[in-house]
UniProtKB/TrEMBL annotation, chains A, B:
Segments for region (Disordered): 321-340
PROSITE patterns per the UniProt record, alphabetical: HTH_LACI_2
Gene3D superfamilies assigned: 3.40.50.2300, lambda repressor-like DNA-binding domains
Keyword annotations from UniProtKB, A to Z: DNA-binding, Transcription, Transcription regulation
The keyword Lipid metabolism belongs to this UniProt entry's keyword annotation: no
A GO term for molecular function: DNA binding
A Pfam short name: Peripla_BP_3
PANTHER family per the UniProt record, alphabetical: LACI-RELATED TRANSCRIPTIONAL REPRESSOR (PTHR30146), LACTOSE OPERON REPRESSOR (PTHR30146:SF153)
Biological source species: Yinghuangia aomiensis
Name assigned to this protein: LacI family DNA-binding transcriptional regulator
Domain HTH lacI-type, chain residue ranges per copy: 11-67
Amino acid sequence: MPQVPRQDKAPTSADVARAAGVSRTTVSFVLNDVPGSGISDATREKVLAAVRELGYAPNAGARALRAGTGNLVVYAMPRWPLGPAINSVIERTRAALADRGLVLLVHGDRSLTGTDAALAWAELRPRAVIADTDRCTAESVDLLRRHGVRTVVLVGEEDVPFAPTVRLAQRKVGRVAARHLLDRGHRRIAAIVPTGDLAEPGELRYAGLAAEVATTGLAVARHDLGFDHDAALALARAWAADPDGRPRALFAYNDEFAALMLRALRDAGLSVPGDIAVLGVDDTPLCELVQPRLSSVALHTSDFAEAHVRVLLELLDRGPHEPWPELPENEPRVVVRDSA
Amino acid sequence: MPQVPRQDKAPTSADVARAAGVSRTTVSFVLNDVPGSGISDATREKVLAAVRELGYAPNAGARALRAGTGNLVVYAMPRWPLGPAINSVIERTRAALADRGLVLLVHGDRSLTGTDAALAWAELRPRAVIADTDRCTAESVDLLRRHGVRTVVLVGEEDVPFAPTVRLAQRKVGRVAARHLLDRGHRRIAAIVPTGDLAEPGELRYAGLAAEVATTGLAVARHDLGFDHDAALALARAWAADPDGRPRALFAYNDEFAALMLRALRDAGLSVPGDIAVLGVDDTPLCELVQPRLSSVALHTSDFAEAHVRVLLELLDRGPHEPWPELPENEPRVVVRDSA
C-alpha cells in the first residue's frame, strides 16, 4: 500500500514533478498519456510512483480540458424509479464502458431539463452523455458539444432530429398487448394503470393499448390502481359479483401488478385464464413463479441493453459531426405462458 | 428558451462578464453565491441572464475549488448487482440530497479499491463520498479529506475505526434466519447459496446461518445453486425421493430463490411448509404473491435507507474532524407468513 503522507493540503502536479525529479510538462504528458511525447518507460514509472506516493488526483474537469477528453460517461437517471429493466441497462452499459477504460456516472438530478440539465452534466466534462429525449433540446445538445462532450445518445418514445435516439417505446408495448388479446378473441378488455411513480409509463402503455383496441371499434375499461392488496381484492370482488359486466382479459401494466391481480382474482374465487386472462409486461423471473404461470410482453430488455451499448460504443468512435449509425428500437413480443 | 449562439468554443467566465457588463470578480461572486459580497439583485439577475444566454458551465472541480465545496455526492456503486434493496437506498439518498441542493452521482467503477478508488472519486471534487468499507482504507479516507471531501460515510459488514460506518450486516441476516427455524423446532436445515454475482453476500448470509445453527451442535446442508428452474427441480426431486434424508427447513438466500424453490418443490410433489419449510430474505412484494405466502427475513430496507440518509445529512452539517453521530445498524427480523 502506498504511503500517503499526512498533510492538510491536496498535492499539486508541481509536488509530483518535484518528487519525481522531472518537469511539470513531463508530469502532464504522462498523466494525459500524450502520444509521441517521447517519455521513456522509466520516467513514466517514476512519475506514476510519485503520483501514487503523494496521492495526487487531478480534478476531472481540468484533466478533461488538458487531454481534450475525459473518461467519464454521464447517464442521466430516468425520471421513474430504478427497477429491473433500467438496472439491466445500467449494468451492461457500465461493464461495456469499463472494458474501454471509461467510467459510468449515474447523475441523480431528475429535476432539470433543457439547458439547465445540460449545464449540470457539462460541469463534469464528460466524454459522453446518455439521457431521455424529454430532458433535451437542440440547444442543450449543442451546449454539451461545445463543452467537449463528444457523444450524446438519447433514449425516448420517439426519435428526435438533433441527436441519435435509441427508441424505447412504451406505447408499442400496449399495442402489442392489445393485438395478442384481440387475436385470442377477447372483446372485453380491461387495463390496470398504476398510480404514483409509475404513472407516466403507465399512461403510455395504456394509450398504446387503447389505441390498438379502438381500431376494432372496441373500448378498454381503465382501472387506476396503486400496488395495494386491498384495492386489488376490491376490484376482483366487484368482477366476481358481476359475471356479465366483468372483463374477460386484463392488461396489468407489468408483471408485479399482474401477480398482484392473480392473487386477488384467486382470493375472489375467479379462475385465470378461465374467467379472466391476465397479461403482464417485462417477462421477469416472477412469470415462472406465480400460479398460473404468467404470460408477459417481453421488452427484450437484454437485447435492448446490448443494442444501446453497441450504439454508444460506435458513437464514441465517431466524431461529433459524423453521421450516426442505424439505431435500435425495441420490438416487444408476447411470451405466452398459461395466464393469457 | 434561452438563445444559445452557435459557436465552436465553450464560453468562459470572461465572456459572461463582457455580456453582463460586469467584472469577472462579480461573475465569480454571483456564481459561487459568496455571502456578504454586496451584489445587488439587479446585477445578480444580469449575470445569471448572461450565464443562461451564453450557456456557461464552470467545471465542477473548478467551481468546488473556488467555493470551497461542491454540490456533488459520490455514491460508489456496490460490487454486487443493483437490486430492490440497493435501489431503495439510492432513491431515498437521491431525494434527500436533492432537498438540500446536492446531487447524487452513482460512480460505476467497481474495480478500484483503496487509494486508487479514492483518487477516482476525488477527481470529481465531491462534497461527500459514500462507499463500502472493503473499498476504503485509512489512507484513502485521508486522501479524500485532503481533496476537500468533507464527509465520508462507509457501509459494511463491520465497523471500521477510520470513518463512520453504517452497518449492513449480511451474517446477521443468516443468524436471525437460523434462530427462527431452530425456535420452530427444525433440526434438519438446508441452505441455498447463490452462485455468480450474488456469491459474496450469499457466503456471508450462509456463514451467519451455519454459525448460529452450529451453536446447537447441528450442521447445515449447503446447496450452491444458480437461478435455474431445472437445477432447482432436480434438487427438489432428490429430496422427494429421500423422505428420511431430506431437510425439513430451507433458508433460500432471498425471496426470488425462495419462490424458485417453492415452485420446484410443488412440481416435485412436496408440500410447503408440511414437508419442508421455506424462508426467504428481503420481505419483497413477491412474498404476498406466491403460494403459500412466503415468510421472509426483513432487512428493514426502508428504515435502513432512512437511517443511512439521516446520518449522511447529519455528517454533512459537521466538520470533517468533529466526532460522528450514533450510527445505525440493520436489525433484521422475520416477517412470518405461511411458508416457515
